[in-house]
Inverse folding.
């Protein structure tokens, strides 16, 4: 499946910003089943310096600085990616939970050893007894590991209410667990926390999801959003993605941007500014459009449809 | 041998540094003991006092917290820690080897990570540690060395073997204190030092400078800056002291900025490119773009500039991972991995609770062990389980079991002991010695000496965590005398001469300006309060009205509202309020508040003040404590006398700034602060007291306290011999350019300073600050003195004087603002922005 993704972020400052130092994880990475045909990043105003490099986790990261006064910042990324649908996995067979733990402890090959990186506390996800308790019954030693993870994925989907008004970027996992609500980032962190608390290796995946309009309606521009889910490591095999927000195993509708231990490793866009007056208005618009064979235009444009975008002010 | 006079009998089972197992004095202590005995106890005590005084005068201190006035004077025991050259050779080689090994580890962890891939270190030990900074992956310094500075804490076990109990690899502190210890001991024990053939320390610091210059991309006069967290941190004395000794500008994060792929120092002359950063701040606060902990500190963008090679940071960011005590357990294996052989210097036996077998051991022997967190954080100390009660032990064990990978246990080594002067006797104290290395050639140079810490009493094991026990100079005996080198190489010196105003950060100028202002403000405030006291107790009491005016002026000039301007102000017994204006620290505008501000500004520019000035700053610190202690009790009798010593210290500070500071820009800014403040305070005082003075015809009675408060009464009486007449008074206080207290005098010196500071870069147009000063000068020059002495017929007030003073006041304030706008850096600190919102699908 071929997609075009446009992710635009606009930041308006209350006051002039004299300098800004930014880090962007907005360029999709090449990975299993995903090929990036192109990915262009445009920054307005033009940055003074701009460096693209591959980071510790293999993601493409872009560092840029703005050294002239400005009152707004716009970052627009246009990418085209192709995703080969993955073979559906058999959840019921394969390696058991106990075998996974043993293999991780042993670290027999390099892959297993590198995966252990994702077993420990990270800046936003700390292992805790209550997290282990939430999922322990699902991970019986002899149960096939993937079946258990899938059950956890479903449990989170059923137990938690999707509620963008509840949490912020900084809401502790504990609050999410207690109140049983949050957004995709919280659910991914939650699953990761449960898995790590039980000794498994789990990582955070940041990216996009193609959303389809209700039957009979036309999809609106900007209606998509950046998305997050998690992946678990299966020793001797590879990483498998799970999306607890939608109770699915991503096949060919999830576009991967970057992965890390948690959100803080792959925050799509963050920075430090001098000036700015402390108040900012952020607007983010994401479009994920299928590129039909023979069609140059990704999404159906309908005249007079207002552009919808999510905006959220941060403190 | 010890004579009767010096009795030191080790009262312990541990190794003793002075007395051997046979009860005899060790050979390398024979000579020092002879000298000490010849000296006698009284002389020794006298020198101990001298040493204490020097340390206090040098401002040698360490601050346990962030409190402004809490800093403990560094404590130095007169008896050095002495090591023979044979013994030292072993330690030196071992330290060198350890630094080499840590260098390889650092290089590997942020590079290929063979240690992990080859299972030399369990991945968890690194991956779980917050000191492993993934953002620093792949950053490399040019040359072989990734680790430039290293320090190791050593203890000697009962068998006489030295063991490493910890490594410092970010910004190892202690070299400055070691240097100060040496300087002081040499001063107070010159003969002992001279003939003992002690290895000198200066070559080690020369190597610091060489290495940092070598790292720079610019070979011609590279700019090396000394980056600290700033005043009021534990080691701020050491930072100022070392930066001065090494000749590097002392800077804070806000003095630096990342632009155009390089790092720049914001100096008075604009931006100057920095080649090398001598980093004395922790990894976790160095770059707010990378780490959330560091807001308010650090330099945004530093990490990426370092990655691109735009600046060299030594030690490189991320080196904190080397401080993890887990590495101690794996050191032998790492040595075999990299060097193919065993280590010369062992670490103290260490068990990592993240290892199942080790954890079992720790559980079984818990009570005998020292428990350490793997991550060093201020305020988090190692714990000797034996010191805890049953409940505390259980709690600690539970904590360890909940997060075993975060803890190590070490065997509680009983450190060797050494005599220390304790009252009039010597008593045994345990010691920890910190050794230092710096990259050199293809290996490391080891400081021939170190920093020895001793415990507060004989059986303590807490030494490093509490500096309170004191320290010792550390002597390595040479077989023959050495030639001393200067820390500066001759050809470098020549270049330093060219750069006299070298790159003062704008912040420093700002601090000096305020240092000058606050010193003057405190002085004028103190004088005014003193004058008020004198008038209250005078044999010729003021009329109630005048008394009111005088007291209200105290409130107005100091800005301690409501004070005497309050509705229910007590004019009958104003002493209490007056004392509060002096001593209430929490009250903005109070004298104590000003003094704190002086101390604060002085701490920010320590490296520019001479030793004598620092001594006076310390006197002020002491003076404040004295004031606080004695104020209440002396309410009855002549409280004004209590203020005299402080006024004297402030005057001395002022005098010294004239005599001991180079007339460079730094000094000029301090002077401008002082002059502006004096002019403003004089104008304020005159307008609050004299404009409305109804007086009795010709004489203006309140002129007397005004003159007294402005230090011009004696001169007035000598000049005029008349009563207190306004025109004469104003002549002296406003116009007389010979009177260093007159407003005209201040304006003229401000003009000189401004011209000089501007230097050759002066434009055709006048600057705003100069314009204000000239306007004020002209107003004065063009006003006939007779006119301002006239009273308004209707109100009886001195309206013309009032008008003139209002205008002067406005011009002076505008001048101050214009100066600040022009020269000081008022950029707001960095703000974090999370620009992405969240995934909201």
């Amino acid at each position: 499946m071929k997609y075009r993704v446009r992710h635009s972020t606009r930041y308006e400052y209350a006051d002039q910003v004299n300098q800004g130092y930014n880090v962007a994880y907005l360029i999709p990475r090449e990975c299993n089943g995903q090929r990036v045909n192109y990915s262009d990043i445009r920054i307005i105003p033009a940055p003074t310096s701009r460096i693209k490099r591959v980071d510790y986790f293999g993601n493409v990261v872009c560092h840029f600085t703005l050294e002239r006064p400005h009152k707004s910042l716009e970052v627009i990324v246009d990418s085209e990616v192709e995703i080969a649908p993955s073979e559906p996995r058999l959840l019921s067979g394969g390696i058991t939970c106990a075998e996974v733990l043993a293999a991780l402890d042993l670290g027999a090959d390099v892959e297993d050893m590198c995966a252990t990186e994702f077993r420990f506390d990270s800046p936003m996800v700390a292992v805790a007894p209550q997290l282990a308790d939430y999922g322990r019954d699902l991970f019986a030693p002899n149960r096939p590991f993937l079946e258990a993870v899938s059950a956890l994925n479903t449990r989170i989907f059923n137990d938690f209410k999707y509620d963008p008004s509840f949490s912020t970027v900084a809401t502790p996992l504990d609050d999410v667990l207690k109140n049983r609500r949050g957004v995709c980032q919280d659910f991914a962190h939650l699953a990761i926390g449960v898995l790590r608390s039980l000794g498994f290796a789990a990582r955070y995946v940041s990216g996009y999801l193609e959303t389809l309009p209700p039957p009979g309606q036309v999809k609106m521009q900007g209606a998509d959003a950046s998305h997050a889910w998690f992946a678990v490591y299966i020793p001797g095999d590879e990483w498998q993605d799970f999306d607890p927000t939608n109770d699915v195993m991503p096949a060919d509708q999830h576009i991967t941007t970057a992965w890390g231990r948690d959100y803080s490793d792959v925050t799509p866009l963050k920075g430090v500014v001098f000036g700015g007056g402390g108040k900012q208005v952020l607007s983010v618009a994401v479009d994920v459009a299928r590129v039909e064979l023979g069609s140059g235009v990704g999404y159906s444009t309908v005249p007079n449809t207002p552009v919808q975008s999510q905006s959220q002010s941060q403190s | 041998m010890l004579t009767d006079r010096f009795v030191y009998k080790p009262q312990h089972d541990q190794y003793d540094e002075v007395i051997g197992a046979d009860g005899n004095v060790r050979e390398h202590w024979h000579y020092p003991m002879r000298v000490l005995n010849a000296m006698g106890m009284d002389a020794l005590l006298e020198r101990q006092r001298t040493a204490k005084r020097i340390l206090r005068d040098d401002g040698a201190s360490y601050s346990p917290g962030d409190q402004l006035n809490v800093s403990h004077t560094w404590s130095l025991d007169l008896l050095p820690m002495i090591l023979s050259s044979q013994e030292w050779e072993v330690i030196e080689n071992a330290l060198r080897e350890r630094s080499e090994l840590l260098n390889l580890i650092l290089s590997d962890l942020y590079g290929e990570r063979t240690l992990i891939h080859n299972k030399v270190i369990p991945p968890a030990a690194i991956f779980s540690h917050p000191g492993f900074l993934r953002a620093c992956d792949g950053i490399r310094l040019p040359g072989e060395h990734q680790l430039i500075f290293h320090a190791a804490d050593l203890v000697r076990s009962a068998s006489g073997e030295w063991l490493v109990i910890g490594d410092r690899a970010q910004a190892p502190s202690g070299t400055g204190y070691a240097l100060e210890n040496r300087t002081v001991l040499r001063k107070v024990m010159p003969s002992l030092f001279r003939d003992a053939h002690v290895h000198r320390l200066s070559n080690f610091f020369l190597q610091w400078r060489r290495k940092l210059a070598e790292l720079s991309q610019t070979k011609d006069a590279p700019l090396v800056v000394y980056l600290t967290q700033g005043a009021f941190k534990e080691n701020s004395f050491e930072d100022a002291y070392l930066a001065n000794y090494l000749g590097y500008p002392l800077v804070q994060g806000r003095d630096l900025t990342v632009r155009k792929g390089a790092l720049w120092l914001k100096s008075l002359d604009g931006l100057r490119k920095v080649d090398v950063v001598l980093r004395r701040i922790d990894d976790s606060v160095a770059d707010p773009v990378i780490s959330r902990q560091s807001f308010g500190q650090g330099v945004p963008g530093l990490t990426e500039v370092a990655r691109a090679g735009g600046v060299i940071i030594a030690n490189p960011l991320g080196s904190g991972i080397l401080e993890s005590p887990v590495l101690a357990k794996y050191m032998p294996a790492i040595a075999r991995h990299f060097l193919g052989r065993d280590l010369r210097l062992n670490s103290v036996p260490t068990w990592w609770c993240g290892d199942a077998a080790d954890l079992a051991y720790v559980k079984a022997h818990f009570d005998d062990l020292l428990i350490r967190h793997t991550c060093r954080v201020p305020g988090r100390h190692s714990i000797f389980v034996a010191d805890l009660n049953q409940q505390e032990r259980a709690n600690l064990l539970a904590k360890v079991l909940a997060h075993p990978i975060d803890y190590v246990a070490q065997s509680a080594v009983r450190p060797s002991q050494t005599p220390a002067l304790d009252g009039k006797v010597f008593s045994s104290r345990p010691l920890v010695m910190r050794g230092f290395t710096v990259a050199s050639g293809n290996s490391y140079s080891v400081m021939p000496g170190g920093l020895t810490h001793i415990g507060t009493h004989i059986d303590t094991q807490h030494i490093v965590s509490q500096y309170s026990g004191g320290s010792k100079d550390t002597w390595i005996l040479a077989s023959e005398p050495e030639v001393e080198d200067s820390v500066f190489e001759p050809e470098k010196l020549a270049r330093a001469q060219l750069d006299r105003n070298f790159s003062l950060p704008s912040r420093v100028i700002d601090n000096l300006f305020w240092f000058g202002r606050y010193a003057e403000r405190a002085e004028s405030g103190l004088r005014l309060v003193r004058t008020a006291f004198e008038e209250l107790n005078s044999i010729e009491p003021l009329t109630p009205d005048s008394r009111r005016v005088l007291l209200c002026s105290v409130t107005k000039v100091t800005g301690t509202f409501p004070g005497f301007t309050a509705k229910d102000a007590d004019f009958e017994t104003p002493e209490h309020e007056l004392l509060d204006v002096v001593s209430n620290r929490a009250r903005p505008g109070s004298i104590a508040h000003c003094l704190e501000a002086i101390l604060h500004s002085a701490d920010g520019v320590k490296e520019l003040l001479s030793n004598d000035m620092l001594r006076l700053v310390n006197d002020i610190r002491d003076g404040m404590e004295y004031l606080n202690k004695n104020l209440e009790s002396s309410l009855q009798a002549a409280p004004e006398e209590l203020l005299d010593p402080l006024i004297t210290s402030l005057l001395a500070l002022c005098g010294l700034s004239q005599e001991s500071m180079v007339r460079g820009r730094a000094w000029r800014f301090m002077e401008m602060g002082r002059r502006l403040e004096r002019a403003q305070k004089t104008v304020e005082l005159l307008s609050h007291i004299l404009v409305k003075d109804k007086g009795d015809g010709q004489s203006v009675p309140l002129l007397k306290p005004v003159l007294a408060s402005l230090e011009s009464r004696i001169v007035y009486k000598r000049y005029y011999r008349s009563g207190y007449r306004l025109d004469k008074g104003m002549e002296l206080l406003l116009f007389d350019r010979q009177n260093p207290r007159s407003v005209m005098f201040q304006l003229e010196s401000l003009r000189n300073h401004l011209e000089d500071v501007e230097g050759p870069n002066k434009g055709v147009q006048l600057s705003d600050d100069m314009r204000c000063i000239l306007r004020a000068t002209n107003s004065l020059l063009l006003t006939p003195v007779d006119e301002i002495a006239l009273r308004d017929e209707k109100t009886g007030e001195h309206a013309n004087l009032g008008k003139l003073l209002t205008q002067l006041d406005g011009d002076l304030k505008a001048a101050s603002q214009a100066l600040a706008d022009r020269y000081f850096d008022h950029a707001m600190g960095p703000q974090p922005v999370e620009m992405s919102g969240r995934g909201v699908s």
